[in-house]
Amino acid sequence: MSATDLTCTECHDEGTRIVSKQAQFHRSQHGSGGAYVRGGSASCAGCHGSEGAEARIEAGLVPRDEAVEGIINVSPYTCRTCHDIHTTYTEDDFSLTGDSAPAPMGVTASSFDGGAGNLCASCHQIRNELPVAVDGVIEFTTTRFGTHYGVEAQMLLGEGGLMVTGSPSEHYEKVDDTCVGCHMGENRDHTWVPDVDNCVSCHDDLESFDSRGVQTEIQELLVEAKALLVANGIMTEENRSIPGAYPEEVVSSMWNFMFVYSDSSDGVHNPDYAKALLEYVIENLG
To answer: How many other CB atoms are found less than 10 A from the CB of residue 43?
Structure first.
């Protein structure tokens, strides 16, 4: 039997396709750092660590589903986390974990249907429960109140904020494969660092991500909103919450601020919704 008779050579050939993707991956935040160790906890294993994330996504569960268990000897992300590696020993093994099925949103009870970007949305969504007011007051005991980091899916969908109604952004509705289209491009760059060149098919004159001054405006609103939250005594300069009982509009304001802050795009993912969330803070606390 010659090498040409083996299906392995569909992937493992004399080219550098796999090596180059691995090199890109190891430069990414997904492929470096120690966040995967949080996968030992049941509340984090659905996204942090390879074993829990892969199993949960294949099962179509939300990140903090009660069926998710902490992983003993948890592993960092590898190719196998997101791809069906060595299941058929053909190029089909590059198919995505979960087969790009729409990703359920745990907190907002909706779904993200954005092609290959569904895999990204399986983790990049709000994981903390929405706060509930009792007689107009919300009490919390944590110094980490607010949305978890990486809430891009719901920002794109225009949902998940408090007291503010949004709608899906054009980046959700018009970009092929949503997250993948912008963050990986046609070459499927595995650093996931967005490139302006991936945007010019829609924004032909774009020179930076600050299109029409969106990022500048949102950055200024974030500064103004943060100052008001600190002045109201609910948040520190380090964006940590101060435990206590607060009026619903004050807590909602911090939630909305943390939502925009944790999205990390400075409004690019959904300019109108990000602006509305921060304007709520300023109008209610200013």
So the answer is: 12
Rounded to 10 degrees, what is the CA torsion of 84, 118, 123, 53? Answer: -20
What are the tens digits of pLDDT across the range 8-33? Answer: 888 998 899 999 999 999 999 999 98
Q: Determine the angle formed by the axes of helices 214-231 and 271-285, rounding to 10 degrees.
A: 30
Q: For the whole model, what pTM was predicted?
A: 0.94
Beta 244-247 vs 137-140: how paired, if at all?
antiparallel
Secondary structure of 139-150 in the HEC alphabet? Answer: EECCCCCCCCCC
Using DSSP bridges, classify how beta strands 111-112 and 103-104 pair: parallel, antiparallel or unpaired: antiparallel
Q: Is the predicted pLDDT of residue 2 greater than 70, yes or no? A: no
Residue type, 14: E
| Mean pLDDT score across all residues of the chain | 95
- 233: how many CB neighbours lie within 10 A of its CB? 11
- CA gap 201, 197 in Å, rounded: 8
CB contact set of 17 (below 8 Å; sequence gap of 6+)? 11
Tens-digit pLDDT profile for residues 182-225: 999 999 999 999 999 999 888 888 899 999 999 999 999 999 99
